[in-house]
Amino acid sequence: MHHPEALEPIVGFLRGIGMEIEYGERAHNGFLPGVNIHGGVIWVDPETLLGPGDLLHEAGHMIVVPRRYWSRLGTDLQEDIETLLREETGPDGSPDPILTMAARQGEFMSQAWSYAVVQHLNLPMDCLFFPGSYKYDQYEGTHPMLAWLEQGTHIGPAALARAGMTGFSGMFAYVENNGLPAFPRMSRWTLD
Q1: Beta partners for residue 38, in sequence order
Q2: Closest to 185 in 3D by CA, of 159, 163, 160, 162
Q3: Could you read off the pLDDT of 150-176 as tens digits, one per residue?
Q4: Are 56 and 117 in contact (CB under 8 A)?
Q5: Backbone phi, then psi, for 178, in 5-degree steps?
Q6: 118 exposed, middle or buried (CB, 10 Å; 0-12, 13-18, 19+)?
Q7: By the 8 A CB rule, do 55 and 49 touch?
Q8: CA atoms within 13 Å, Cβ hemisphere of 189
Q9: pLDDT over threshold 80, residue 143
Q10: Distance between the two ends of the chain, CA-based, in angstroms?
Q11: How far apart are CA 159 and CA 13, in angstroms?
């Protein structure tokens, strides 16, 4: 595992914001090795987890969904969120805007949120952005996802800002302002 020393601080942080984290074999067969979600509980297996940032990333998909739906989230987060979105479409046919954002921008929001957590915990960025993470296994220098976040061109921070979790930053700060401190400083860690 890349940076195993970062696992316990991350687990402690996630539990501190109200997420259920358990260790065991239910972590197997998830979207990422060593981490899986069953009924809103995130399971982790340190023996097969590639990096603790993968745990953060999966948690990041959950935090952009209202807490009342967490127990309905499982291994296929995207499908679960799409199902919620279909169920919560208003009688006039208008989709729930929060679930729409989670369904359409959740991947980017999760990436940005994970970056903010790693900074907040003062952990090495390599625990999140390691070779093979985010499907980038061959690159020179800085991991491409980390570069986009640091350059202010990644769209995840703007989506988090639109959700009221942080302020606008990077190139988006020139266009929008919600009065909150700029990303990566978070005003709140969960949607609600």
Answers
A1: 41
A2: 160
A3: 998 899 999 999 999 999 998 899 989
A4: yes
A5: -110, 5
A6: buried
A7: yes
A8: 17
A9: no
A10: 32
A11: 22
